[in-house]
Amino acid sequence: MQSAPKSFILKNVILLFVFFRIIGFVFGGAFRFYVIRD
Which residue windows are transmembrane per the record (predicted)? Predict the structure, then answer.
């Protein structure tokens, strides 16, 4: 089995980075909204 090409790995890393950025933004925004509301 040949190792995955660099472009494939890079694409996965970028997708993971974007995914975690969105998750962090959503949770951070919800947390701030909750704290401000309280």
Answer: 12-35
Predicted confidence pLDDT, tens digits, the chain (38 residues) = 677 788 999 999 999 999 999 999 999 988 888 887 76
Contact partners, residue 7, CB within 8 Å, separation at least 6:
none
Residues 7-12: contacts with CB under 8 Å, at least 24 apart: none
The type of residue at 9 is I
Give whole-number Cα distances, 21 to 7, 25, 38, in Å: 21, 6, 25
